[in-house]
């Protein structure tokens, strides 16, 4: 499991993340919900190893991740715009990390088929990202993130770039996909609906601090 203990990230005099303690059990989806500027992205980047901690610790299954570089943490990142390689087909995008690892090509082909099935894009193998809708691109990004069977997936506002209709449709799918894949996920968002659509647990963040956390229906009271 993921454990953050008193994690602080400072930029100069400002603590973007201020003594945050959070735990995430295998198979759980935790949403960190808070307004723009409260430190969500910084927190996610710190977990990914993209941001040095000023103090505190991040560990996985009891092992401190200090000094462990991003690509060795076993985490997958999926950011807002999906960031697909525009010149590669859908299949090549999904296969990217597997090929980097020199996975045998027969295995890559099987895995790509499984993943495209999982995200509802069977048959899209040869399409280029430029020919896909926003929601389809997000699904490809998700398949790509899941390809290497990450022990944790980090999602930064995965649905925010989409229009309202598409967001609603993809939210249900994304939740099912995460659960079907048994994935542990940490997502950050400013969007209350996105958090509720996807997560089991909620941490409410304000000005760098987690002010409340728990099962989603326990934490949230209608204001
Ligand atoms: P959120 O993701 O919730 O919008 P961020 O984590 O992006 O918030 O930012 C939290 C705070 O840290 C903000 O006040 C932001 O201006 C500041 N901040 C973020 N990144 C940097 C940086 N690289 N240098 C200086 N300040 C930063
Ligand atoms: P080094 O000890 O090799 O100088 P750093 O301390 O700069 O390495 O950290 C290397 C990586 O580990 C960075 O990506 C940083 O975000 C991350 N990191 C640093 N301290 C911690 C910590 N206590 N827990 C988890 N990750 C950490």
In short:
With 223 residues, this protein is of the alpha/beta class. Helix content is 34%, strand content 27%.
User: What Rg, in angstroms, do the CA atoms define?
Assistant: 17 Å
As laid out across the biggest beta sheet, the strand order is 6-7-8-3-9-10
- Name the hetero compounds present: adenosine-5'-diphosphate
Low-confidence stretches: none
The strand count comes to 10
Mean pLDDT, all residues: 90
List SSEs in N-to-C order: EEEHEEEHHHEHEHEEH
How far apart the termini lie comes to: 32 Å
So how many helices? Answer: 7
What structural class do you assign from the helix and strand content?
alpha/beta
Strand residue percentage: 25-35%
Helix content: 25-40%
Biggest β-sheet strands, sense, barrel: 6 strands, mixed
Could you say which overall geometry the principal axes of the C-alpha atoms support? Answer: globular
């Amino acid at each position: 499991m993921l454990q953050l203990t008193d994690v602080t990230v400072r930029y100069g005099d400002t603590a973007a993340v201020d003594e945050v303690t959070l735990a995430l059990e295998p198979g759980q989806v935790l949403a960190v919900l808070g307004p723009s500027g409260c430190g969500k992205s910084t927190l996610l980047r710190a977990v990914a190893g993209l941001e040095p901690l000023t103090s505190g610790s991040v560990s996985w299954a009891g092992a401190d991740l200090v000094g462990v570089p991003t690509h060795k943490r076993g985490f997958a990142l999926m950011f807002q715009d999906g960031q697909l390689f525009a010149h590669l087909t859908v299949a090549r995008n999904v296969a990217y990390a597997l090929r980097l690892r020199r996975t045998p090509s027969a295995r890559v082909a099987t895995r790509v088929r499984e993943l495209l099935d999982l995200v509802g894009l069977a048959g899209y193998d040869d399409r280029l990202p430029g020919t896909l809708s926003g929601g389809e691109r997000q699904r490809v990004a998700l398949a790509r993130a899941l390809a290497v069977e990450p022990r944790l997936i980090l999602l930064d506002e995965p649905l925010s770039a989409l229009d309202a209709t598409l967001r609603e449709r993809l939210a249900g799918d994304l939740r099912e996909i995460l659960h079907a894949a048994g994935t542990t996920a940490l997502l950050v968002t400013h969007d209350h609906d996105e958090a509720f659509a996807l997560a089991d647990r909620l941490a409410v963040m304000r000005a760098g601090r987690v002010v409340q956390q728990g099962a989603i229906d326990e934490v949230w009271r209608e204001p």
